[in-house]
Amino acid sequence: MGAIHVLLLALSLTTLTATAHNITEILSHFPEYSLFNNYLTQTKLDGEINSRDTLTVLVLPNAAMSALAAKHPLSVIKNALSLHVLLDYFDAKKLHQISDGTTLSTTLYQTTGNAPGQIGSVNITDLKGGKVGFGSAAAAPGSALEATYTKEVKQIPYNISVLEISQPIIAPGLLTAPAPSASDMNFTAVLEKAGCKTFASLIASSGVLKVYQTAADKGLTVFAPSDEAFKAPDVPDLKKLTNAELVSLLQYHALASYSPFGTLKTAKAPMSTLATNGAGKYDLTVSTAGDQVTLQTGRDTSRVATTAIDAPPLCIFTVDSVLLPPELFSLSPAPAPGPVTSPSPAPVGSAPAPASAEAPSSLSSPPAPPTETPEGAPAEGPGQVEKSTSDTSAGSLNAPAMFKALFTVSASAILSVYLS
Ligand SMILES: *[C@@H]1O[C@H](CO)[C@@H](O)[C@H](O)[C@H]1NC(C)=O
Ligand SMILES: *[C@@H]1O[C@H](CO)[C@@H](O)[C@H](O)[C@H]1NC(C)=O
Ligand SMILES: *[C@@H]1O[C@H](CO)[C@@H](O)[C@H](O)[C@H]1NC(C)=O
Ligand SMILES: *[C@@H]1O[C@H](CO)[C@@H](O)[C@H](O)[C@H]1NC(C)=O
Fold first, then answer.
1. DSSP track, 320-377
2. Of 158, 238, 282, 283, which cross-links 89 as Cys (Cβ 3.0–4.6 Å)?
């Protein structure tokens, strides 16, 4: 029971740190920044800001923001705004106490991986006459800083500070960089470059690529398993799937919304996928530990590894494991509820569904002694017991807290039997 308390405490702490502040709510009290706030929401930078601590957001009044927003696609605006989120806490006092009168601060743009050199940093300089200037750290040496500090907007020491500045900070080349457009993006080329050739060829041959391309204009997030992921020993033989099942599996690897990393980090409810329909839930839950995001299917888990593309409204991530929906790959002894539509020569109920045949264990069977573990798995003892237990209970449960609590109970129950 103690373990459950520790676990629930840890879970609630995780939730608290993930939502220490809400930038949308903070700015909603200031109509003069409504446009800036609106673009934070559209670019989903709000989630990125809310999931971090020790930040300074440099907001632009509506007139300055509308000048920046005009004529630029959302992906460019996103990059420009990420340069206005400093990964350090500055209030008026600290601005005027900068040692030597000048410093560089890294920004959210630096974390995108597309920011060579000093492009992702901002130069803050205490100017003569009490003014503080802000400019791109990548600007030519000696060039004037384009923006100046105007006033404090909101401070929650030392989690988030919101300061108003006069003008946008523009890094060289930022506004003129070619913006990848979802409609003419070559998915195959992007996926192959990201190390996901198997996934790329599966979506092309199954026709799911067309589904992705159609969805990409309105908002699409793809979780592409790496080529290594398809070679993992626990991945069922995909050739045994019907075409309809393969389509469901591949659609399960995408969300019908633009959900960049910061949005995933703060997602609480289960997320619907392109495979979600009346016949099955096909949803994904997210767990976050620090900067690591893990997707949970209820059948397996997969780490979100890299961002291949983040260009609103399209986001492509690579993931470490193939996402196996419990609707297709049931671990329970009962026949899988999903494949009613799949053509099967056998009468319904007379044979186990193909997916159930993959089930390595069931809840009712006692855990096998380590020496009899198949496949020569080197692990033995508690680790082995825990894993099979978690996989089994995950097959029928979706709420992560329930799942974890139950998993702890069943794992410790089995362990105590095993150790006695
Ligand atoms: C600041 O953030 C920490 C860690 O996320 C949190 O525990 C604390 O409550 C926050 N402080 C305020 C005043 O919101
Ligand atoms: C933040 O605040 C806005 C506006 O008050 C609200 O709509 C939104 O749901 C909040 N977000 C979170 C993550 O609580
Ligand atoms: C910031 O910019 C000013 C003006 O270009 C320059 O003099 C100063 O050295 C820069 N500061 C840093 C830390 O690079
Ligand atoms: C997309 O990229 C792939 C792989 O680089 C290439 O074979 C294919 O011809 C490209 N398709 C289009 C329409 O450009």
1. SS----TTTS--SSSPPSSTTSS--SSPTTTS--TTGGG----TTSPPPPGGG-GGG-
2. 158
| Residues counted in the chain | 420
Third-level CATH fold of 23-165: FAS1 domain (2.30.180)
Candidate from 17, 49, 54, 159 with most ligand 1 atoms within 8 A of CB, to mutate: 159
23-165 with 187-331+363-389: one CATH topology?
Answer: yes
Q: Are 180 and 311 in contact (CB under 8 A)?
A: yes
Residue 133: enclosing H or E segment and its boundaries? strand 132-136
Neighbouring residues of 87: CB distance < 8 A, sequence distance ≥ 6: 52, 54, 55, 105, 106, 107, 108, 110, 111
Residue in 95, 100, 122, 123 to alter for ligand 3 test, most ligand atoms within 8 A of Cβ: 123
Tokens matching residue 276 = 């979600």
Mean pLDDT by 10 residues, the chain (420 residues): 45 48 97 98 94 95 94 89 97 90 94 82 90 94 90 96 97 80 83 96 96 90 97 93 95 95 88 85 92 93 93 93 92 44 38 37 37 37 34 37 38 38
Q: Where do the domains of the chain lie?
A: 23-165, 187-331+363-389
Q: Which residue blocks in 99-256 are alpha helix, DSSP H?
A: 187-193, 197-206, 208-216, 227-231, 243-251
| Euclidean distance between CA atoms 91 and 88, whole angstroms | 10
Kindly report whether the global pTM for this prediction surpasses the value 0.90.
Answer: no
Q: Which atom of ligand 3 is nearest to the CA of 104?
A: 13
